[in-house]
Amino acid sequence: MKPVLVAGEINADLVFTGCNELPAFGREVLAECFRQGPGSSSMICAMGMAKLGDGVLFAGVAGQDSWGDYCVDALRGAGIDTHAVRRDATLRTGLTVALSAAHDRALVTYPGAITALRAEDIGDDLLSQAGHLHVSSYYLQQGLQSGLGALLARARVCGVTTSLDPGFDPVQQWGSALRELLPLLDVFLPNALEACAISGAATPQQALQAFANGVTRTVIKCGAEGAITLGDDGDVLAVPAIRVDAVDSTGAGDSFDAGFLHAWRRGLSLRESLRWGAACGGLSTRGVGGTATQADASDVRRLLAGTP
């Protein structure tokens, strides 16, 4: 099986956990724990897929700085091919501060080099090495947005399947440009908030219907409520979340993406693919940071063997 090509943002995460409330200007709050780790939706998904045994190529831009060194070393340490990562001495690598509790998290991101990746950086020679193209954080990757449709079209010509996790829109405009890309996608992976905002629907179930186009498999991540998609019969197919002793939810949706795509690419049923996603998302919350406790394939199989 050809590797997954992740076209994404590169940044480090500084994760503060056990935050009982969010800070306000003029005030200070305390955290119970802190961890520095590889960050970004794209890096967490890429490292999750590598942990499951997938070959992974990564295309992105990082500054020629210590944070860039840290992130690229982390990708390489996970067995990910970084030859398509460009280092730019005129840019600074992005950085995210995550304030996390077991149930949710709040993020502050300095984009830095995140906005520098462009569709033309990903040539057909790189696409030809991959079997699947995954893009995360559409709204943060501003340099990629205008050419993404052409990139997805080129991927289809090359026989490469595609997926997109839109991420949150910091300016909350959402807009229609992303919806126009859906017919070029094989898999669309928003969470419930994103799905409703992008579609204008009141509920995730209504969003599934709004996104249905006969081409794109939309999977909506609903946090503690599990995940949903439309079954082949047109009805909503739902799987529950996997219950674990959660410590930090940072990157859980990205680990879900890794698990779902790993199973989906191997032809597992929709229900089993959703269960793999739920297992990977749940297991990733056992430690601090998005990558510290990501599952390998044997972890998932053991967990699912004991889960209805």
CATH topology: UDP-N-acetylmuramoyl-L-alanine:D-glutamate ligase
Q: Number of helix segments?
A: 10
Radius of gyration: 18 Å
What is the annotated CATH architecture?
3-Layer(aba) Sandwich
Strand order of the largest sheet: 5-4-1-8-9-10-11-12-13
Structural class: alpha/beta
Helix percent band: 25-40%
CATH class: Alpha Beta
Counted up, domains total: 1
Q: Rough shape?
A: globular
Task: Tell me the total number of β-strands.
Answer: 13
- By CATH, the superfamily comes out as Ribokinase
| Oligomeric category | single chain
Could you report the average pLDDT, rounded to the nearest whole number?
94
Provide the β-strand percentage band: 15-25%
Low-confidence stretches: none
Record the SSE blueprint.
Layout: E1 4-7, E2 11-17, E3 33-39, H1 41-52, E4 56-63, H2 66-77, E5 81-88, E6 94-100, E7 105-110, H3 124-127, E8 132-136, H4 142-157, E9 161-165, H5 177-181, E10 187-188, H6 192-199, H7 204-211, E11 217-221, E12 227-230, E13 236-239, H8 252-265, H9 270-283, H10 297-305
Parallel strand pairs: 1-4, 1-8, 2-6, 4-5, 8-9, 9-10, 10-11
Antiparallel strand pairs: 2-3, 6-7, 11-12, 12-13
Helix pairs in contact: 1-8, 6-7, 8-9
